[in-house]
Structure formats: structure tokens, C-alpha cells
Design goal:
Layout lengths: L4 H14 L4 H19 L11 H12 L3 E2 L9 E2 L4 H20 L26 H10 L5 H16 L3 H5 L6 E2 L4 E5 L5 E5 L2 H14 L22 H14 L7 H14 L4 H8 L4 H21 L2 H4 L10
Antiparallel strand pairs: 1-2, 3-4, 4-5
Length: about 325
């Protein structure tokens, strides 16, 4: 078949959309498959026969040989340095999902990329936020302003519940149950889940909602977190706002997902069980959640080294007198 790859990509994205995949997931697939399509084109319109193992491996090699990130990106500055193994792994996942879909839909007789291996991804130790870093972050926020009251509530909610930044932006006022101390979150795959929060977070949410939340720009807008003119706060705006708070607090590595990591590890260190954590985080399988168990165990070892009972006795080695 001489069907253009561009056409097949659009059909693939429509299929994923009808399956209930989130808009962000659709964008993720589109960006990665579009780059693969441009690579295969090479001066001509890429057709179905161009989707083969040789081209796929050459594409992965080209990604591994890159020396810059965000080249030709409309909203990001170019950064020196190659792509991470995790990023390349994502490209391979995307094109393999596309190839598998082509076989399932019988555009091809068999999946042409079944032998395409995913690059190994290392498992770096995630340094979750320390007590002092959390205190610095929270102490930096002036909760007596609109932006401060909103950010104070958001940071505490993310840290106290582990919900994703995108889920926080999509949170509706109706889904914030202040009397019962939980939020109803619409997660990946349009799956709803209930996530509780503590008394301090409750106070910050109550103060924001009753004192600082503006009137919605339109009656149909029910998002909990709004801009000053009453429009829904976007994911990009939240990401940048959290980044600014981190820089101001002296914690430049602060990201929304770091708050999620910190919640998960501290939940386990405080005695929570991994099965409940999986439900709270909205993971479909236990495999991803298991990572936090290893992180928690590593941090427990670090904490033990700080508070070793024997080390704190300052026992010096002494010889017995003869």
C-alpha cells in the first residue's frame, strides 16, 4: 500500500482519542510520530513501505547522536547536550505503538517493528524534598496575595495528595470536598479516583476558595484554580509558577512532579502501604508504584545513617589494660 504515513498517523491519533486517551497523550504521540515521519520523508512524502526496521533504527541512532535539545521548538530555547535515554525511550515506545496499531488494523500483514529494541533507561536516585526545602518553599510564598494564596494551596495540595499538575489544573470546584477532606480527580484514561488531604491543606484550600478565588469569566467555568480574570489556570502556567517559587526559595530543582515523588516516598516512610499508594497516585499497574518502594527504602537508609544510635555515642576504640 502507498498510503502516506501522515494520513495513517492522523487515523492512529483519532483511534487513541476515541479510546479515551487524554489530550496531552495525543499531543505526545503527535510530536514524536511527526518527527519520525519527517525523518522517513527525506525529500519525499513518506509512504507505508518506508516504515521498516532499517529506517526505525536509523531514526533512533539520529536521536542518540543529537548534540542539542529543543532545536526548532517554538516555545523553548535551545539547550546544549544530547537527548536523555528516557526521552529516546519515549520515541521508541511511540513508534512501536503506531507500528503495532497498523498491524492490528491490517494496514500491514505483520508488525514491521517487533524487533525494534527499546534503549535501556537507567534508574537514577530521585532526591525528594527535605524538611528544610519544604519549609523554604512554603515560607517563600506570600499567602496574603491572590497569586500567593493560590500557589500556597496548590503546593500543599500537590505535596499532600500526590496528584499530577494536569489533574490539579483540571480540578473542578465541585470535586473539592472540603467537608470530607478529599478531592475527586479525573486522571489518565478518564479514570476518576478519590484522594484525601490533611487539615493544613484543607485550611489553605478553604482560604483560597472563600477569600481569593475570583468570579469565573464564564458561568460554565468551574475550575477550582483560576487566573485573576477568572479563566482556568493552564498546565504551562502552573509549571512556570512552581518553577519560579523554587528559584525564589533556593530550590531550583522544584517541579510539580517532584512534589508528587516527595508525597509518594514520605507516604511509604510514614507507614503507608504500596497498594493504597497505587490507588492514590492513579497507577494502572503496580510496576510504576514499586519504584517508590525502592526510593523509600533508600531514604530510610540515609536517615538511619544520620541517626545511628552507636555512632551518636561517639565510642572510641580502647584497648583493655594488661
Amino acid at each position: 500500500m502507498e498510503t502516506p504515513i501522515k494520513t495513517l498517523i492522523e487515523l492512529f491519533l483519532v483511534t487513541k482519542s476515541t479510546e479515551g486517551r487524554s489530550p496531552r497523550t495525543i499531543v505526545w504521540y503527535r510530536e514524536k510520530l511527526a518527527l519520525f515521519e519527517r525523518f522517513m520523508s527525506n525529500g519525499h512524502e513518506a509512504k507505508l513501505p518506508d516504515l521498516n526496521l532499517e529506517n526505525a533504527r536509523a531514526f533512533v541512532t539520529s536521536l542518540q547522536e543529537r548534540e542539542q535539545r529543543w532545536a526548532n521548538h517554538p516555545n523553548r530555547q535551545v539547550v546544549e547536550g544530547g537527548l536523555s535515554d528516557f526521552t529516546i525511550h519515549g520515541y521508541v515506545r511511540a513508534i512501536r505503538a503506531f507500528s503495532s496499531w497498523l498491524a492490528q488494523e491490517e494496514f500491514v500483514s505483520r508488525d514491521p517493528l517487533t524487533r525494534l529494541k527499546r534503549p535501556r533507561v537507567g534508574e537514577p536516585m530521585i532526591e525528594v524534598l527535605s524538611d528544610q526545602e519544604i519549609a523554604d518553599i512554603v515560607g517563600t510564598i506570600n499567602s496574603n496575595t491572590f497569586n500567593g494564596a493560590r500557589m500556597y494551596a496548590i503546593v500543599l495540595l500537590l505535596l499532600d495528595s500526590g496528584i499530577r499538575a494536569s489533574e490539579c489544573c483540571g480540578l473542578t470546584l465541585e470535586a473539592v470536598h472540603l467537608e470530607q477532606d478529599y478531592v475527586k480527580v479525573l486522571g489518565k484514561g478518564s479514570k476518576e479516583r478519590i484522594v484525601p488531604f490533611g487539615a493544613t491543606t484543607k485550611k489553605s484550600l478553604l482560604r483560597y476558595v472563600t477569600t481569593w478565588r475570583p468570579e469565573p469569566f464564564l458561568p460554565t467555568i468551574d475550575n477550582a484554580f483560576l487566573t485573576p480574570d477568572g479563566r482556568p489556570m493552564t498546565y504551562c502556567a502552573l509549571r512556570q509558577a512552581i518553577k519560579r517559587v523554587g528559584v525564589k526559595a533556593g530550590v531550583p530543582r522544584l517541579r510539580a512532579h517532584l512534589l508528587r515523588h516527595t508525597f509518594a516516598v514520605r507516604y511509604l516512610m510514614n507507614g503507608g502501604d504500596i497498594m493504597t499508594l497505587r490507588l492514590l497516585l492513579g497507577h494502572s499497574t503496580l510496576d510504576v508504584t514499586q519504584m517508590y518502594m525502592h526510593l523509600a527504602e533508600s531514604h530510610i537508609k540515609v536517615q538511619y545513617s544520620k541517626f545511628s544510635p552507636v555512632d551518636r555515642l561517639n565510642i572510641s576504640r580502647r584497648r583493655k589494660p594488661r
